[in-house]
Amino acid sequence: QVQLVESGGGLVQAGGSLRLSCTDSGRTFSDLAMGWFRQTAAKEREREFVAGISRSGGMASYADSVKGRFTISRDNAKATVYLQMNSLKPDDTAVYYCAAQIGALVRSDANYYGSWGQGTQVTVSS
C-alpha cells in the first residue's frame, strides 16, 4: 500500500527557494513513477502537472511554466521524491501534491496516478 506524506511547504518571498519532500511509507517505492502537481484556489477542480520522474530516476518531465526553475529528483533508498523550487514567483502559490503510480511511464495526466499525498501549501509573496 502506498502512503505519501509531503513536507517542506511554507511562505517565501519571490525569487526565493523551497524544497518539497514526499515520503512513501510503503515498501514499493522503487516500482513507482512519481509526480508533483499543484492546485490553486482559483482552480479548485484542476490539479496542474508540475514535474514527474520515472521509477529509476533516469527520466524527468516538467511543465513549461517551471522548466529551468524546478528540479525533481528521488532517493529510492529513502523512499523519497523531492521538488527543488528556485526563482519562485507569486504565480507558483498553490497547494502542492505528490502522486504515485506503479509503472514505468512518466505522465502529466493526474488521472494516471492512483495514490496522492495530503498536500503542502506553498505561498510566494511579491
Please, could you describe this protein's structure?
This protein is mainly β. Helices cover 0% and strands 48% of the residues. It has strands at 4-7, 10-13, 18-24, 32-39, 48-53, 60-62, 70-75, 80-85, 94-102, 115-116, 120-125. The strands form two sheets. Strands 2, 4, 5, 6, 9, 10 and 11 form a seven-stranded mixed β-sheet that branches. Strands 1-3-8-7 form a four-stranded antiparallel β-sheet, with no helix packed on it. The protein is globular, with a radius of gyration of 13 Å.
Supply database-style keywords.
126 residues; mainly beta; seven-stranded mixed β-sheet; four-stranded antiparallel β-sheet; 11 strands; 0% helix; 48% strand; globular
Task: Summarize this entry quickly.
The protein is an all-beta fold. It has strands spanning 4-7, 10-13, 18-24, 32-39, 48-53, 60-62, 70-75, 80-85, 94-102, 115-116, 120-125.
Secondary-structure element sequence? EEEEEEEEEEE
What is the tally of helical segments? 0
Largest sheet: 7 strands, mixed
Average pLDDT, to the nearest integer? 95
Strand-helix topology:
Layout: E1 4-7, E2 10-13, E3 18-24, E4 32-39, E5 48-53, E6 60-62, E7 70-75, E8 80-85, E9 94-102, E10 115-116, E11 120-125
Parallel strand pairs: 2-11
Antiparallel strand pairs: 1-3, 3-8, 4-5, 4-9, 5-6, 7-8, 9-10, 9-11
